[in-house]
C-alpha cells in the first residue's frame, strides 16, 4: 500500500498502528493537525471489513476533527482512534488498558474519548494507565447529550434558513440511526413538535420510538426516499452518495453522523439539487465541545459547555449566509472557514 498516496491521507502529522497480542488489541490512532492544540477526538470500536477500511475511516475522521475543533473555536487539533474488531466479543479491561498504554506513548499529542461502541466505563479503564483521556464520569461525562443538543440546534438553524420557520412544529424529519445520540435527538425533535420517520438495525429501539415519540418506522433502504423536510443521518458515514441522493425528497440534510458525504463532489451535487447540506463536523461538534472543557485547565462546567454548544446555531447561520453570498456549496465554505482559523493558529 502506498500510504502517502492514499486519497484520504491529508498531510496527517502522525499515524500510529497499535497492537497487543495478549489482549487482542488492534488499533490505529491518526493525528491530523495540531496547529491549534493537541489532537482530540473519540475512539471508535468497529468490526471493519478490512484493515484498509479502518485506516480510511480514521484518516477521514481525524481530518474532520481538525475542522470540527477549529469551527467550534476550541484550542484543540484533530485526532481520532479506531479499535478493529467485534466489540461484543473483544471488549475487556485488558484491551482498554493496552489501548491506554498506546495513547500514553503518544505523550499528549492525542486525547481520546468515547465514540461508537465505547462507554464512559471503557474510558475509565483507559484512564487507569493514561491521563490523556476525557469524557469521564464525574467530569464531563458522556458527550452524547451535547452532540444531540448541537444537532437539534443545527436543524433549527437549517429550517429557519431554508424554510423560513422559527419553529419545528409540523416539520417532517427522517432520522437514520437511533443510537444514544440519534434517539436523544429524536426526543428533542418530538418535544419541539416535529413529525418523525425513523429507521435503525435495532427493532426494540424502533418499537420504543414508535410508542414514545409517535414515530413512523420504515426499513433501512426506505429512509432516504421519505417525503420529509429534513433527512438526518445519525448512523455511520457515507450515507449521502450517488445511489441515495437521487432518492432524497428532503430539502435539508442535517444529522449527527460523521463523514456523511461519500465523496467531496456530493457537496456540490446537493447544492445543484437545491438541498441545503449542514456540514457534519459543524453540527455535531457538541460532544467535543463538552469534552474540551475537561481537557482545558479550567474546572469543567456543564453550563459553560451548553453555552458554547448553543453557538453552533450562529456558526451555521454564518456558513449558510456565506455560501449563499458566494454561490458555493456549504461544505466547501465550512472547509475554507476552518482552514483560515487553522492557518491563523499556525502563524
Explain what the structure shows:
- The chain has helices at about 50-70, 85-90, 95-105, 120-125, 145-165, 180-190, 205-215, 265-270, 280-285, 285-295, 300-325, 330-345; strands at about 15-20, 25-35, 40, 45, 75-85, 110, 170-175, 195-200, 215, 230-235, 250-255, 275.
- By secondary structure, it is α/β, with parallel strands linked by helices.
- It has 2 domains: about 5-65 and about 75-125, Rossmann fold (3-Layer(aba) Sandwich), CATH 3.40.50.10860; about 145-285 and about 315-340, Rossmann fold (3-Layer(aba) Sandwich), CATH 3.40.50.720.
- Strands 1, 2, 3, 4, 5 and 6 form a 6-stranded mixed sheet that branches.
- Helix 3 (about 95-105) packs across helix 4 (about 120-125), helix 5 (about 145-165) packs parallel to helix 11 (about 300-325) and helix 11 crosses helix 12 (about 330-345).
- The protein is globular and about 50 Å long.
- The chain starts with 13 loop residues before the first strand and ends with a helix.
Q: Which features characterize this protein?
A:
2 domains; Rossmann fold; six-stranded parallel sheet; single chain; 347 residues; globular; 12 helices; alpha/beta; six-stranded mixed sheet
Mean pLDDT: 95
**Strand/helix succession:** EEEEHEHHEHHEHEHEEEHEHHHH
Distance between the termini: 34 Å
Spatial extent as radius of gyration: 19 Å
Overall body shape = globular
Amino acid at each position: 500500500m502506498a500510504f502517502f498516496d492514499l486519497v484520504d491521507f491529508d498531510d496527517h502529522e502522525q499515524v500510529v498502528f497499535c497492537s497487543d497480542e495478549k489482549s487482542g488489541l488492534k488499533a490505529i490512532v491518526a493525528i491530523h493537525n495540531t496547529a491549534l492544540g493537541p489532537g482530540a477526538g473519540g475512539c471508535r470500536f468497529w468490526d471493519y471489513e478490512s484493515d484498509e477500511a479502518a485506516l480510511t475511516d480514521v484518516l477521514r475522521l481525524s481530518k474532520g476533527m481538525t475542522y470540527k475543533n477549529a469551527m467550534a473555536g476550541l484550542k484543540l487539533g484533530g485526532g481520532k482512534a479506531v479499535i478493529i474488531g467485534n466489540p461484543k466479543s473483544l471488549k475487556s479491561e485488558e484491551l482498554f488498558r493496552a489501548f491506554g498504554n498506546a495513547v500514553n506513548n503518544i505523550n499528549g499529542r492525542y486525547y481520546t474519548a468515547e465514540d461508537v461502541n465505547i462507554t464512559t466505563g471503557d474510558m475509565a479503564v483507559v484512564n487507569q494507565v493514561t491521563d490523556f483521556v476525557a469524557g469521564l464520569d464525574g467530569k464531563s461525562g458522556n458527550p452524547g447529550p451535547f452532540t444531540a443538543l448541537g444537532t437539534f440546534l443545527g436543524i433549527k438553524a437549517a429550517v429557519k434558513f431554508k424554510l423560513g420557520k422559527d419553529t419545528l412544529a409540523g416539520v417532517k424529519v427522517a432520522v437514520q440511526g437511533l443510537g444514544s445520540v440519534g434517539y436523544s435527538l429524536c426526543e428533542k425533535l418530538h418535544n419541539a413538535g416535529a413529525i418523525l420517520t425513523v429507521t435503525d438495525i435495532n427493532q426494540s429501539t424502533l418499537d420504543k420510538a414508535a410508542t414514545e415519540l409517535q414515530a413512523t418506522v420504515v426499513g433501512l433502504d426506505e429512509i432516504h426516499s421519505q417525503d420529509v423536510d429534513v433527512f438526518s443521518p445519525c448512523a455511520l458515514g457515507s450515507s449521502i452518495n450517488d445511489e441515495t441522493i437521487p432518492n432524497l425528497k428532503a430539502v435539508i440534510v442535517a444529522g449527527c453522523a460523521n463523514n456523511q458525504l461519500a465523496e467531496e463532489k456530493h457537496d456540490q451535487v446537493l447544492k445543484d439539487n437545491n438541498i441545503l447540506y449542514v456540514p457534519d463536523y459543524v453540527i455535531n461538534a457538541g460532544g467535543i465541545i463538552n469534552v474540551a472543557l475537561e481537557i482545558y485547565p479550567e474546572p469543567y462546567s456543564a453550563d459553560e459547555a451548553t453555552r458554547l454548544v448553543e453557538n453552533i446555531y450562529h456558526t451555521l447561520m454564518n456558513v449558510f449566509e456565506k455560501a449563499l453570498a458566494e454561490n458555493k456549496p456549504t461544505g466547501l465554505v465550512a472547509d475554507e472557514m476552518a482552514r483560515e482559523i487553522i492557518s491563523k493558529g499556525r502563524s
